[in-house]
Write a structure and sequence with these properties.
Blueprint lengths: L1 H14 L6 H6 L6 H12 L2 H14 L2 H27 L6 H8 L2 H33 L4 H16 L4 H29 L5 H4 L6 H4 L4 H21 L1 H9 L5 H29 L11 H9 L2 H39 L7 H23 L5 H24 L5 H19 L8 H26 L1 H19 L7 H22 L8 H6 L30
Helix pairs in contact: 1-8, 1-9, 3-9, 3-13, 3-14, 3-16, 4-5, 4-14, 5-12, 5-14, 6-7, 7-8, 7-15, 7-16, 7-17, 7-18, 8-16, 8-17, 9-14, 9-16, 12-18, 12-22, 16-17, 18-19, 18-22, 19-22, 20-21, 20-22
Amino acid sequence: MLLFFGGSFYMSVRISKKKENADGYMTGGGKIGFGISAASMTATWIWASSMYASATSGYTYGISGPIHYGLWGALMILLIYPFGRRIRAVAPRAHTIAEVMFARHGRSSQLMLAGSNVLGSVISLTSNLIAGGALVDMLTPYTFTQGIIAIAAGVLLYTLWSGFRASVLTDFAQVLAMLGAVVVIIPIVFFAAGGPGLFETGAENLTRQQQDFFSSDAFFNQGAPYIAAVLAYAIGNQTIAQRLFAVREDLIKKTFVTATFGYGATIIGVGMLGVIALYAGVEPLGGDLNNLIPQMAATYLNPVLLCLFFVMIIGSLSSTADSDLTALSSIVMTDVYGQNIAGKKRANPRTMVLIGRITMVIAIAAALVFAGTKLNILDLLVFVGALWGALVFPVIASFYWGRVTNAAFSIAVVAGLAAFLPVRFSWVDLSGGLGLASDVLSTVGIGIVLGLMAFGFFGKRVALVVGTVATLAAAPFAIGFLHIYPVLSGSLVAYAVSTIVCVALTLLNKGTFDFALIKERTGDFDNEPGADRPDDEPRPGEPVAVRGEIS
């Protein structure tokens, strides 16, 4: 740990500046090249929690579990780039998605996105510390609490001074270490546990569904909810948006396609540790599935390989933890101080950097407190992703449809969340008429999710056809059935309600928005002439000409 975090700190110090630039601290100036950007995107998406969750999925659902987890996550990275190119086209110098929503709509939309990202990043930090603490507790003489404190201090140490630039530079080294470790460790554990013969001798430890490559349990409980959840992560997550605003605009497609393959291969591979544990009849220590990966490593690896494994997990959690810290600092710097306290014209870049560093310290402290609860990582991931599901359509529509208003955005998100919570946590009895209503909305949600995916790559006409056909095709099977899967139903209901409300309210608006205003209202905080800065309070929804967008 001293070598790993010491090396990361040395890299951070080497690129530190005596007078840190606020824009560089948040996005690296928007000029990051392909190699660093692709490695950073891959490392950020491959977090320790995703490794642990993939293994948990493999242990719970059999061989199809990690494939559902890794494949859909990889495809969602691929889905980012068509929307990402549109976002960068209308806001080339922005720092956060919430900042763009402020320029597009106003304060309430901005705070919804900023607030959801603060919650998401703190939960992400917490889950990564839990993963690291479990590793330290299992493989060293130190306790869980000592482990999370040491890891939190290490990540904070190298991220604090140079912010985003330190995060992406260390990501490059971390992703090389992670990929190398996966290539070596997974085959060794497989053969040490019994090799190909394990699939015969251990088959009795599996249920029929766990043996089925096309398991319905795995699809409805893991695959389908994750499709919806990861689409939400892709659109609303500030750690992703930060890399989108940092990479050179002409390299967006290349960066996200490369990250797609890197993530998929790594996460599916690590998830196979859970499948091996299932076939081998391994019982998670203390009944805690978070202990499964370190337990397999401790059982089947020698001390040298155990060190390599340790670096793999520490690298994965650090790459995401530093991304969460820089995301949180950017939100507070831009959306809290830069837009709502000082105002863009009066924001002091040096004060912004100080605020960003203070934010990181507070965020780490909060994550340490929450990490002590040892919450289930898989539940945390699905929950946050579903919360973001209510934001997906309003956010995407706001970048393409000039008639979307601040009221349509805000009311749609609140309505989506209000519908999501009782379904997801079974607060109401879904066995009767409410269950039927939930199934109808969930079926509409299926069409919306698939339609949005098609829209990103093929445009509006194809999206409408795909969404309509998917809804009609799913209806005979989904209605009367989906409500028994609350995780999946909750996510789909959130998509459906937020989309229906947003479209209905938007159609009532006759005015349109000039997307060119977003570029004027967002931009650098450092070295920008005061005369060119936009007003503190944009006036959204002004009836001006639309420039080639959906009218």
